[in-house]
Write a structure and sequence with these properties.
single chain; alpha/beta; 4-stranded antiparallel sheet; 4-stranded parallel sheet; 13 helices; 33% helix; binds zinc ion
């Protein structure tokens, strides 16, 4: 299969500040191995991307050390503290493609209202991490039977649904554009569907892990299955897939969140949230195609033309194989089986619950602007 280079609208590249977890160099190499030619990086770095200098740093580092396109996302609020708006005009001028305090919701409704108001002027979305953090305090995993059995504090679906509902109302009020990050609940899908019917400007994403793994992965206290929002239930997965198929959910984005082995080698309650997702995304998503839950054209659209549509002009014509478009191309074998081995990861983050898992569908080559940036050597003559 030959398709446009994949586009990830939600990745954590960790640089500056957390280079032990990932760098722009390792993260973009991981992306290339995963078939991605464009990644949008989240601003929860240290310092956070809440000013022009920080955004310039990402762009120049990506140009010299990265192997694919990196498009930065700027903060909503100064220091991601949710108290005072960042200089959104300055960030827009520096070339951010969205605004987000990802990892933190803007719990202050007035700040979110202002953010939606200002971002409208720049034609950029506000990417919303939907979590009522007062309700989720101390939460470790999805709230339900499994959390009760394991004795872990739960994160109810309602914590997501509440903020999705609030921010859809604020998008309606302001006419601003809300982009719902990592949708995980049946309720959120329904809220987004209704909002779209009403003409509210909303787009939404879902991650590969929330489409393919349930809360049961946490049994055994695997810290690599600890992610926020948490892995939910089969019922939520069915709703998410239906949402993709009826275009309630526009795109698939990885929420690639690398951590060091040390970070995750601890008691479940102390482990940070996050899954390293760039290198397993296509393989795990192809599982949905093989199970006939998604068609191959739908899957490819959700990873290429649809995120390109959200990027608009900022993407520079990516997401298509049209004449004149950047020569960003991914070649993959939809039927090639392989076993996830994190020793092969280019990412510094080996934190995946898929270690040792057999996936069917593998990236063979990734071409960025006409240059081969990844070529699969490992599976020559693979079974
Ligand atoms: Zn988030």
């Amino acid at each position: 299969m030959v398709c446009p280079g994949l586009i990830d609208l939600h990745s954590h590249l960790r640089q500056p500040g957390y280079e032990e977890k990932e760098t722009i160099s390792s993260g973009t190499r991981a992306a290339a191995r995963g078939g991605f030619t464009t990644v949008c990086c989240m601003p929860n770095t240290n310092p956070p991307l809440d000013n022009q200098t920080a955004v310039e740093y990402i762009k120049s580092t990506a140009a010299t050390e990265g192997v694919i396109r990196v498009l930065p996302i700027g903060c909503i609020s100064k220091g991601r503290k949710g108290k005072e708006l960042a200089e959104m005009g300055e960030l827009a001028a520096a070339g951010v493609i969205a605004f987000s305090d990802d990892g933190e919701p803007a719990l202050n409704s007035y700040i979110m209202r202002q953010a939606l108001d200002y971002s409208r002027a720049f034609g950029l979305p506000v990417t919303d991490h939907c979590e009522d953090t007062i309700l989720t305090e101390g939460g470790q995993m999805n709230e339900g039977v499994v959390s009760a059995k394991l004795g872990l504090r739960g994160i109810p679906n309602a914590a997501e649904d509440i903020i999705v509902a609030r921010d859809l109302a604020l998008a309606q009020l302001t006419g601003g554009w809300i982009h719902i990050a990592h949708t995980t609940t049946e309720g959120a899908v329904e809220l987004i569907r209704r909002a779209k019917e009403k003409g509210i400007k909303v787009t939404a994403e879902v991650t590969p892990h929330h489409l393919t793994l349930t809360e049961e992965r946490v049994i055994g206290y695997d810290t690599n299955a600890k992610v926020n929002p948490p892995l939910r239930t089969e019922r939520d997965i069915e709703a998410l897939i239906q949402g993709l198929n009826d275009n309630t959910i526009d795109i698939i984005a990885t929420d690639h969140a690398p951590h060091t082995e040390g970070d995750k080698l601890c008691e479940f309650a102390l482990a940070p949230f996050g899954i390293s997702g760039l290198e397993t995304a296509l393989g795990s998503l192809m599982g949905l195609v093989h199970k006939k839950k998604l068609s191959l054209p739908t899957l490819i659209a959700k990873l290429t033309s649809e995120p390109a549509r959200i990027l608009g002009g900022k993407g520079g014509g990516v997401g298509t194989l049209a004449v004149g478009a950047p020569a960003d191309i991914t070649v993959f074998d939809p039927d090639l089986e392989w076993v996830v081995d994190t020793k092969d990861f280019a990412s510094k983050g080996k934190n995946t619950p898929l270690e040792g898992e057999k996936l069917k569908g593998r990236v063979i080559a990734t071409i960025y602007q006409g240059k081969i940036v990844y070529k699969d050597e490992a599976t020559k003559g693979a079974k």
